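Researcher: Here's the sequence for the chain we discussed earlier.
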Amino acid sequence: MRTLKYLTIFFITIATAQAANIKVETTEANCKKVDGFGTNDKMDIATTYKVPLSSVKFLGAKWQPGQYGVPGCIFIFDTANGPKRCTPLQLLSDDGGKTTFGAVSPFGNPVCY
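Model: Thanks. This is the structure I predict for it:
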């Protein structure tokens, strides 16, 4: 019975934490609010481009043409091999839209050029 109680609390906590992130529309205004990136993004960029993790630095997000010329929100990371421009899958917010963040490395494969 005690285990069931703790499991219930655990799953409620997870659901509450995940519910805090809301998807926001990828617009120029929301791109200007970006202040973060996915948990594993820096490590995945370092691994993919074979650079030291310490050389990967988030420079910010800009609304500009992407790899195929279509304007969008581009996350820019500096690396030992030069800057990488990455496209987040979506923008999220955990504070009701005041700030945003996104992940550029789904399943360990950064979407960068």
